[in-house]
Amino acid sequence: MSNAPIVLPDAVHPPRCKHYLSRKQRCCTAFAREGSEFCTIHAEDESRPEAPQRNMRVPCPYLGTHTVRESDLQRHMKICPDRTALPDLHPAFRRGINLTEAVPVDTSQIVKFRELKIPDQKRFAAWLEDTAAQTNISEHPQKMLDLSAAALTSSKDCAQHEAIAQHVAFALGVDELGQVSERAKRFGVIEFGAGKAGLAVALQHALFPGCPVILVDRSHFRDCKEKGLARRRAASSGDDAEMDRSAGTVHRIKMDVADFDLEAMLTSDARFPDWRHRRWIAVGKHLCGGCTDVSLRCLCRAAVAVRVAAIAIAPCCHQLCSREALCPDSGHDMFPVLPGQEAGIDTFECVRRVAGWAVAGNVAAPEEVRLGRLAKRLVDHGRVMFLRTVFARVELATYVGTDVTPENVLLLAWQAPAPLDTL
């Protein structure tokens, strides 16, 4: 038997199509038809250069985050999930209403903290510790409630949901979780940065079964918890699940919290005429960076016209905070220029970058982790002072252990409890 390589004929397969696909950055892999350099699909396009222009992909007119074929544009605009992003299509949309008019800062000239000279780093660390001592800031806030480990479920998310629900119950004076009373008909739950709505649905189930829920998030999620809630309610009442959703029990708004006007949502939306008379509990779990600030400003701005009974928000990712989203009372006055500080060194940027050390794990040294926690609590202290201008009680408390989540601090605010017969 010969071991010589097998030589195939030169023309086993016809040539490939030479039409270049710019989106895939390669040529078409289909076989060219006989007598042409292009396949059956692209032969007509090459002979008529104007043809691909008529059905090219164009950005969506709403947010421009995706593209659609021009021939399908009119149909797509009727069903696009981003259609609520236009101001004239949603009564609660007010562009940038929850942002501050921050002084523009040239971030390209700001020196990163680790690039600072050693004396500047020590000066900042000393200022941070002195500020924490003067304002009674602790890197580990005290616990408000003694939650037994047996009371919390093994699931990480469920443990946080149950702990937040118990803190809300404490603020509202509810003695037992799951207690069903007349006040369930007078309350509502709104979750900022809702995601899949696990926290809002858990809070509604634990405290106020059947109360309306508003979910605000700028992204779309699959397998959301409110769908299961609608199915359970429909099964208990014998009605269709879609009929239950249309009744307004759960209302999801795809919108950036920075553009969300709660007062306009509850006072001018004709679909929910009785919601403005309810007392609302605002919650949020792990609102990253400035999302916590814009949520607090949204609630405080609406507190005059809307009855906000309690706020329970667990902030996180303080290193993502920005000047334009910072609460007014936690602005430039809290981050002064330090004596002897060189040009290009920004105190707020130092606080923001150092805050990331608190959750850096083994990457950061123990002293850096401690400074990172103090930086986080300094930002939270500004939020507490801002809330105290509107709410009677404001507390910063540890609501779960670090074994559940390192971002285990809860910002809790509430008004004086109202008598049951006045709710």
Q: What is the topological layout?
A:
Elements: E1 20-21, E2 26-27, H1 40-47, H2 51-54, E3 57-59, E4 67-69, H3 73-79, H4 118-134, H5 156-172, E5 187-192, H6 198-206, E6 213-217, H7 225-237, H8 241-246, E7 250-254, H9 262-267, E8 279-288, H10 290-302, E9 307-316, H11 347-355, H12 366-387, E10 393-398, E11 409-414
Parallel strand pairs: 5-6, 5-8, 6-7, 8-9
Antiparallel strand pairs: 1-2, 3-4, 9-11, 10-11
Helix percentage range: 25-40%
Rg on CA atoms, Å: 28 Å
Query: Could you say which structural class the secondary elements and strand pairing correspond to?
Result: alpha/beta
Instruction: Note the beta-strand portion.
Output: 5-15%
Quantity of strands, as a count: 11
Multimerization state: single chain
- The dominant shape is globular
Distance, first to last CA:
96 Å
Unreliable runs: 238-248, 418-423
- Spatial strand arrangement across the major sheet: 7-6-5-8-9-11-10
What is the overall number of helices? 12
Mean pLDDT across the residues is 78
What is the N-to-C order of secondary-structure elements (H for helix, E for strand)?
A: EEHHEEHHHEHEHHEHEHEHHEE
Largest beta-sheet characterization: 7 strands, mixed
Structural description of this entry:
This protein is of the alpha/beta class. The chain contains 12 helices and 11 strands. Strands 7-6-5-8-9-11-10 form a 7-stranded mixed β-sheet, sandwiched between helices. Strand 5, helix 6 and strand 6 form a beta-alpha-beta unit. The longest helix is centred in the C-terminal third of the chain and has 22 residues.
